[in-house]
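Before the break, one more example. Copy the sequence into your notebook; we will annotate it together after we see the structure.
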Amino acid sequence: MKHPNQATLALHAGGDLGPWRRWLTARHLARCAACRAEVAGYDEMRAILPELAELPEIAWNRMAAEIKANIRLGLEADECIRGSAMPLGWPRFGQSMAGWRAAAALASVAVLVGGCLVLERPAPRLEFAAQLSVESTREGIELQNGNRVSLGLLNGGAQKATYTLDAQGSMGARYTDPETGALTINTVSYVQ
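Here is what the structure looks like once it is written out:
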């Protein structure tokens, strides 16, 4: 038999369960004496709580006098130890820390500027671009770097391919695949 948890039993005792959970818990309580005793304990506690909610009379004036005396004692203790020196030249609490704050701010700015210089340096320029060329061959279009072929787009043995060339350096090839009949368009752009 699975028992409801403590929260469910407490909510049932206060009448704060939803209808379905209330019905399930009531069915369980009808068969389980241990859970019924737990709910009875919660009911007794609910009966006592209103009496505990009333605060006894507090002597506010006496409490205020004690607080003032403690504050005075703390201030006098501070005066006694104020004359002693702090080790390593660190400023004591309450003294000016403007020098330390300025040093921390300067260090933060230096780290920020250094990080920006490292992360935002310009990328090196590659000087091989002057050797690139786009050419059409019997097999397709090739992008050549000097004497080496960097990229080749083959036309797959198509009998007829139409090549286009524009003034910006782009070359295109359009052909129909002889086996599938699919139209293929390849374009290679050369941009400096």
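The chain has a mean pLDDT of 77. The chain is about 45% helix and 20% strand. Try to locate both features in your own notes.
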